[in-house]
Amino acid sequence: MRKEDKGLLIEKIKETIKEYSAIYLTETTALNAERTTALRRAAFKAGVKMMVVKNTLLRKALEQLDVDYSGLYDSLKGSTTLMLSNTGNAPAKLIKGFREKKETIPAFKAAYVEETVFVGEQQLDALVALKSKNELIADVVALLQSPAKNVISALQSGGSKLHGVLETLSKKEN
Q: Three-state SS for 26?
């Protein structure tokens, strides 16, 4: 490959990485064509972009970006498939779900999510449990609404009790 072509590929990888907040490094070489197609379809449905890249080109692209991806460099061995997403746990859920159907592929190497590097197969469960930004916002909204709902229901139940007492007293006087 010519040096100019490599430069263009590095630029393309950089531009693609800039669009996403979560980067996963996986290995998918052991998948046959049918399983690879199934994985790509599942990734598309989950909003995860998949790219097979050369490790040296990926490393050069990561080095040229403003973010410190140095924790991922040791995982750039063998064949590497990038999984990119704006939801931090989407690729982890995809990998875990895909594995439940068949084998231990795709193999998880490392990830960069929310300014944190996760390295090693044992980190996959932690990444699956990681809540996305939208899930955290929903949890906070639910917590904030809970006291208000309790006050409203207490007022409503108190009002019906008071109404019942008044009705009983009005019938008693007659």
A: strand
Residue range(s) defining the domain that contains residue 143: 132-174
Question: Do 136 and 154 belong to one domain?
Answer: yes
pLDDT classification of 113: cutoffs 50, 70, 90: confident
Task: Tally the C-alpha atoms within 13 A of residue 24's C-alpha that lie toward its C-beta.
Answer: 28
Q: Bin 115: left if φ > 0, else alpha if -120 < ψ < 50, else beta.
A: left
Report pLDDT digits (tens) over 91-101. 888 888 887 77
Q: What is the pLDDT of residue 138?
A: 79
The radius of gyration of the chain's CA atoms, rounded to the nearest angstrom, is: 26
pTM exceeds 0.85: no
**Is the domain of 144 the same as that of 120?**
no
Length of the chain: 174
